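Forwarding the complex inputs:
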Amino acid sequence: MIAILHAPDLRSVNQARGDLMLWYTGKRLLQMIPVFFGATFLIYFMVFSLPGDPIAALYGERPPSDAVLAQIRAEYNLDKPFIVQYLLYIGNFFQGDLGTTYSGRSVSDVMASAFPITARLAMLALAFEAVFGILVGLIAGLRKGKLFDASALVVSLLLISVPTFVIGFVLQFVFGVQLGWARTTVSGAAPIDELILPALVLASVSFAYIVRLTRASVSDNLNADFVRTATAKGLSRPRVVTVHVLRNSLVPVITFLGVDIGSLMVGAIVTEGIFNINGVGGTVFKAIRLGEGPTVVSFIAVMVVIFVLANLLVDLLYAALDPRIRYAK
Amino acid sequence: MPSKNHGAQPHFVAALEDTPLVAIDRLDETAKARSTWADAWDAMRRRPTFWIASGLIVLIVLVALFPTWFASVSPTQCQLSDSNGSPQSGHPLGFTFQGCDVYSRIIFGTSASVTVGMLAAAIVTLFGLIVGALAGYYGGFLDAVVSRIGDIFFAVPTVLGAIVLLSVLPDRTPVVIALVISIFAWPQVARIMRGAVLTARSSDYVVASVALGVSKFKILLRHVIPNAIAPVIVIATVSLGTFIVAEATLSFLGIGLGPGTMSWGRDIGEAQTSIRTSPQVLLYPSIALSLTVLAFLMLGDVLRDALDPQARARR
Amino acid sequence: MGIVAIALASTGALALSGCAGGTTSAEGGSIITTNGTEPQMSLIPTNTTEVGGGKIITSIFAGLVSYSATGEIEDEVAESIESEDGINWTVTLQDDWTFTNDEPVTASSFVDAWNYGALVTNAQGSSGFFDNIAGYSDVSNTKDDPTGATDESGAVLQIPDPLAETMSGLTVVDDTTFTVQLSGAEADWPLRLGYSAYSPLPTVAFEDMDAFGENPIGNGPYELAGDDAWQHDVQIDLVTNPDYSGVRTPANDGLTIVFFASFDAGYAAVQGGDLDVLDQIPESALASYESDFPDSFVNEPAAVFQSFNMPYYLEHWSGDEGKLRRAALSMAIDRAEITDVVFQGTRTPATDFTSPVIDGYSDSLEGSEVLEYNPEEAVALWAEADAISPYTGTFDIAYNSDGPHQVWVDAVVNSVKNTLGIDAVGKPYPTFAAAVDDREASALTGGTRAGWQADYPSLYNFLAPLYQTGAGSNYEGYSSEDFDTLLKEGAAASSVEDATAKYVQAQEVLLQDLPTIPLWYQNTSGVWSDTVSNVEFGWDSVPLYSAITKN
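Prediction (whole assembly, three chains):
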């Protein structure tokens, strides 16, 4: 009788929760619009403010005549005031034209070749740092002060203070040159197996963050009331650890992973350089050096969308990890 | 209050003041209620790790402030004939690629590196903490605005922002570099703090405080932040190290510290040339960096434990 | 751990969609793999000004002549190039050359290509290479606004039509003959013609130059391997051109130029067996390449000159005081030690303003002792200058940190500091654009890195563009009447020997004035794996690809 009375209520509660989630997601997606305009405007302005004339620099120490330079500047709208350049870019953007690089390639082509490779690399690195980072952090947190914890600390310190180029160089030399287990440099198609080594290098610093974060959260939560209650209830230790401790420890870790996607994609310049990967980081870096507004802005516009979506996903995961967290309003 | 009841029956139990119980029951009415922060300080100073870490940090700060106390050889007198040379008397760690004394370069580079690392970590942590806490605690419109501004800042590639900012700014002092790094790094801390505050604000003691009628802001300050700060401390301490390395990257790109300024990061970056033949040149500045990070990691750990009431109770 | 599952799922999906562009160059006969960089522009000969595109253009096109390993010209399409006076030249072509689309290579293929390259409205980066042909000023200048000046708001004025569409100095006589009239006598004009900007173009190019640049059709020893041979930012696949009959007939089946963002990555690739030939050794491997590749490396002087300029507009650096200080500076630098330690012998100390691989190079110019390390004399000259006006402040040398300059700039300023006892530092600019901006605006605070890689093997090419009054690459604005006169006399000399004598005298003027302080010549330094043989490098530091054989 009671169950029958309660069933519709529960369903409506779930229904309401689902509606709230949809509404929340929709609201967040709408927020993308001002973020898109804010970010593109800011970045276009920054590229515009870069010191030096990008067109003259294309020709190194052998500048062609001023008339030739002026004509090329006009071709890329560089002769117009900043706001006109930006509006022209945005106008073309919404017609599907992302502009061209100074080498005459369409920016959408450049994006189509760089983004898939970077996405594979970043996801692989994210998977590595998440799996190994959480695992090592969990064990270190459970055995705080023991040998494993101390070793994890030493490894983290090493990864923080030894720069990426050294880690990359050493792994490339050992596995690529001496053992011959992996290709030294990644081929054009960049299949997953060739990206394993670069992904490990790319994940190294974030791995240190995640180990420390997980360890801190786990050791905090071990003392929490709900864990004592669960232990007192007679739950097995593995169950207590995975269901109660780990789950409640993941909120900061998941937040970090969400934020880290950006640095893994745009910030992979050094790793991409070592393994000669034609990815987003190197392309954006090169475009910044050349002062190619449309290339930089188009890439970053995509990155902004990825950020907002990743952060949205993280916020939705909060509720799944910790039922007490509610969507605002 | 001693009682002097003459007409009454004599006590058959000892007067309260004569029993040891008085010590237990006595309430020090003049004492102020102890804050979480004061409790934390008490807990912290009882731990040896705290003193080891603090000692190390004091030493590092001393080296940064008074490098001449620790090294007598000039770090800028470099003879190419000593390039990557091995240690000799007066030069305990040998020479860099350019033939400068490794030991005194590390000593004299401490100031810039530690300033960049500590200042950037402090700014990022404070600003990120405040912004993230407000966004997570009050939610709604404030959260939306702060989080989306964070997204925009995080989307700007640091290299681009740094080139633009540093070519506008006249002097590339360690303070300026720290500011530039901070501008692009705060959203990370803000988001972590926001997530932790979201968890903390729905916990039982916050609900209880609300029921007791404590003001919202006081709850944030007294209960939510201390309970949400653990992950931020971790990020801050680890970031301190990565910011010192970030300075190296900026210098490597020609947008770091001004010409002639010494730093560990710069030495680490320059050792790239010698990585195949003389890796020891890279080793020493990395060790200095590791020790600094280690000191702050330990301090962060102690502070985190001290702020966690359950962990404190157990000890 | 939901995020991990999602991550792995999407990774799989991307892997499937991303595999389409894969190539394997390991199989398929004797294809040589070598390093390169993504061409900065589409592959049009007159618009290719940098090394990355240049080595591809040179491989797929054959001009009138090409250069041997030592920089002598050898006839390709040319039968003869003759002149009585150094002004009027008659070019005769061999009649059996074709482009890879079977179109014959005729006099028009050259004349049309050169006219296209020179015309201002085509905005070609190499247009300046035609500036000595009669009529160039009419195609390079526009009717009302010859300078491309800007209006008050900074916007560039609209470019009006040029005065003429073609250069009057170029005349097609018949299919295999054309004449060239130069605007002034130039005895060694044919020496230029091996440069890639002088390549012929087929008629199909002029129909749609942009499309042509993506898929160029040439007449060289190699051709593009199909429509998608150029994978942008990854590599370009070239195969041998069966119809090619010039002096560079390939001994291999093809060439895959893999684009590397850094020489470090390329070096690791050769070590790991993923690349055959690397044409430059990264800084980090300079100390170890001889032991890593004991039997397969090269290290010999090349046509690259490196120096730094001290602008005349700076206080203390003009007049007699400046002259003294420049000489002191030059003698304060221990070039031998720096090339030995910093570059591990992959640079050769400079004794002139050109390069040892160029005909007419001399290591005994009058006054060249100013290029030798002489600390006592340096200190004495510096003190003499201080007597005129005492030097204060920090001395700096500007460089762009997007190139590999920091290490040697630091070594040079240390040498100056140690010898002269002044404060000296390197001053990095984040990009080449930022550095050149300050050079053009005369806004330097000290010296600036300079350098020159020759386009064609001639003394003139090392001198005229850099030090002639008003020349395009004379950023610091050096101007000397004596030098200009000697250069003009050299260009107009009736024989190469007479010309060389004038250029030597011109350099002796430079040694007096030191508008640039010569440092060293960059060597050709490369390594290759044991999978290839017969690796020889040209005068321009690029391997002679056609001669390489696969073992």
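The interface with chain B takes residues 283-285, 287-288, 334, 337-338, 341-342, 394, 396, 400-402, 406-407, 410-411, 414-415, 417-418, 423, 425-431, 434 of chain C (CB under 8 Å).
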